[in-house]
């Protein structure tokens, strides 16, 4: 019994440098590095990110299902999320175990179907208002526009604020805090926030400002006799089944901040990648216009149109296949666990990558081609579960998945009804930039071309 290797499979991987391991290769292009690892070493590969940080990449759908779903109680969120704690607090994305489950139960009602339909009308209105300043032939930074639109939508659905107010009050301090947090996340040595380096001081200041702003909004609401039916109103009314206690101001702050951040950058990136892919695939673009002409025509889209926009839904699914905004999901082993003959020990870090799985030729024919039609006829049911999982899975599956798909579809058709977007001439080469989410490196510059609804 002394030699475990005879009983458990052992993962193979590249040797790496003495001190940094494979950190340099990983940091230069994380999605591509992960893809190469999976191609070279198979279902489970092992490498090092730094002197001590041993990481396993698991690229087999059945094993991913065990990690995210059937054996999920053996795992917790990885230490990477700790860097995000100063900003997310103990919100859904960073909390674990019973506390996470309790919070999830409290928050889930804010995402039920009837509420999403209410939010859908806001999505349409905000996009329409935002587009009112767009002009024919204009060059725009579309990545920034998509971020502004989704920020506007979350400001409205969460706080009933319009875009300008939302951006001034919440968006600006949030942008600063996020930028600094990402800078800290990407640095090799993450000094504790209390050490007064310049970045740490700036980060603390930005987070303090954000805390002040959100807590002020919450306290104002506590004293307001008006009943709000926005997301904050629903979260403030939520009561625990057992003791009927609602969330404290601090917990509300953490959940609001988490939903706010998780809920706008991801969808903005999904939309930006979709615009890029459409500009490179005129056949797909023509089919999008055809569907818009048939389902919506000249009128404003309505929430009910969403169900009829099946090609557009598949277009978003396909865009998230090629460029999953959440390109990797990490977990830390909390209790020793065996998965398909591999033994993972407490403290091990496990990665499962949407980018890697979504580009496997065994599940997706011509994986490098943009083919929304592949999602027709219940395609997802014909491939193994967790070969495609843009929203994660199990008890921690994205709580905003229906919100996100509704939002991406309605924003996309609202823009495409009015404009065709072409990549600006002499555009820099489009590459991925893995921040917290996968975005186009150095943004996307596009030229607007006004459409008549009869255009194909
Ligand atoms: C295209 C858009 C989106 C993508 C690709 C996406 C992806 C994901 C993924 C992969 C996870 C699981 C992370 C993990 O297991 O570690 C997640 C969790 C989460 N997402 Fe999303 N998301 C999107 C949009 C949204 C929206 C619109 C909201 C809210 C309005 C949202 C709120 C959250 C929250 C709160 C969690 C944590 C859930 C939990 O752990 O219980 N997301 N998302």
From TrEMBL:
<protein>
    <submittedName>
        <fullName>Cytochrome P450</fullName>
    </submittedName>
</protein>
<dbReference type="Pfam" id="PF00067">
    <property type="entry name" value="p450"/>
</dbReference>
<dbReference type="GO" id="GO:0020037">
    <property type="term" value="F:heme binding"/>
</dbReference>
<dbReference type="InterPro" id="IPR050196">
    <property type="entry name" value="Cytochrome_P450_Monoox"/>
</dbReference>
<keyword id="KW-0408">Iron</keyword>
<keyword id="KW-0479">Metal-binding</keyword>
<keyword id="KW-0560">Oxidoreductase</keyword>
<dbReference type="InterPro" id="IPR001128">
    <property type="entry name" value="Cyt_P450"/>
</dbReference>
<keyword id="KW-0349">Heme</keyword>
<dbReference type="GO" id="GO:0016705">
    <property type="term" value="F:oxidoreductase activity, acting on paired donors, with incorporation or reduction of molecular oxygen"/>
</dbReference>
<feature type="binding site" description="axial binding residue">
    <location>
        <position position="398"/>
    </location>
    <ligand>
        <name>heme</name>
    </ligand>
</feature>
<dbReference type="GO" id="GO:0004497">
    <property type="term" value="F:monooxygenase activity"/>
</dbReference>
<comment type="similarity">
    <text>Belongs to the cytochrome P450 family.</text>
</comment>
<dbReference type="InterPro" id="IPR036396">
    <property type="entry name" value="Cyt_P450_sf"/>
</dbReference>
<dbReference type="GO" id="GO:0005506">
    <property type="term" value="F:iron ion binding"/>
</dbReference>
<keyword id="KW-0503">Monooxygenase</keyword>
<dbReference type="InterPro" id="IPR002401">
    <property type="entry name" value="Cyt_P450_E_grp-I"/>
</dbReference>
<dbReference type="InterPro" id="IPR017972">
    <property type="entry name" value="Cyt_P450_CS"/>
</dbReference>
């Amino acid at each position: 019994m002394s030699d475990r290797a005879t009983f458990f499979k052992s993962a193979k991987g590249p040797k790496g440098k003495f001190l940094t391991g494979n950190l340099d290769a990983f940091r230069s292009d994380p999605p591509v590095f992960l893809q190469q690892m999976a191609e070279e070493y198979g279902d489970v590969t092992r490498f090092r990110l730094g002197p001590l940080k041993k990481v396993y990449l698991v690229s087999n759908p059945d094993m991913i299902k065990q990690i995210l779903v059937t054996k999920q109680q053996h795992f917790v969120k990885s230490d990477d999320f700790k860097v995000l704690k100063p900003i997310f607090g103990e919100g859904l994305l960073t909390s674990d175990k019973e506390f996470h489950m309790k919070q999830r139960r409290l928050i889930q009602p804010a995402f039920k179907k009837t509420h999403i339909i209410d939010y859908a009308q806001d999505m349409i209105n905000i996009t329409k208002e935002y587009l009112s300043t767009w002009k024919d032939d204009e060059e725009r930074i579309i990545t920034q526009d998509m971020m502004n639109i989704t920020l506007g939508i979350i400001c409205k659905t969460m706080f009933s604020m319009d875009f300008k107010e939302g951006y001034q009050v919440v968006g600006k301090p949030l942008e600063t805090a996020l930028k600094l947090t990402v800078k800290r996340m990407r640095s090799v040595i993450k000094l504790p926030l209390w050490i007064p380096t310049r970045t740490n001081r700036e980060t603390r200041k930005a987070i303090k400002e954000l805390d002040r702003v959100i807590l002020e909004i919450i306290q104002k609401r506590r004293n307001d006799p008006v009943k709000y039916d926005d997301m904050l109103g629903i979260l403030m009314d939520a009561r625990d089944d057992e003791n009927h206690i609602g969330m404290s101001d601090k917990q509300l702050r953490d959940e609001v901040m988490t939903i706010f951040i998780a809920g706008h950058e991801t969808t903005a990136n999904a939309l930006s990648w979709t615009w890029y892919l459409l500009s490179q695939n005129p056949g797909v673009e023509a089919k999008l216009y055809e569907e818009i002409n048939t389902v919506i025509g000249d009128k404003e889209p309505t929430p009910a149109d969403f169900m009829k926009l099946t090609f557009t839904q598949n277009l978003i699914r396909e865009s998230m296949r090629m460029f999953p905004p959440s390109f990797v999901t990490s977990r830390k082993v909390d209790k020793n666990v065996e998965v398909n003959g591999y033994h993972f020990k407490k403290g091990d870090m496990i990665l499962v990558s949407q980018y890697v799985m979504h580009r496997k030729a065994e599940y997706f024919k011509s994986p490098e081609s943009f083919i929304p039609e592949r999602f027709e006829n219940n395609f997802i049911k014909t491939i193994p579960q967790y070969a495609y999982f843009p929203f994660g899975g199990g008890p921690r599956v994205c709580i905003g998945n229906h919100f996100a798909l509704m939002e991406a579809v309605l924003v996309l058709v609202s823009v495409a009804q009015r404009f065709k977007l072409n990549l600006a001439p002499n555009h820099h080469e489009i590459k991925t930039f893995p921040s917290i989410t996968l975005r186009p490196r150095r943004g996307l510059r596009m030229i607007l071309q006004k459409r008549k609804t009869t255009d194909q």
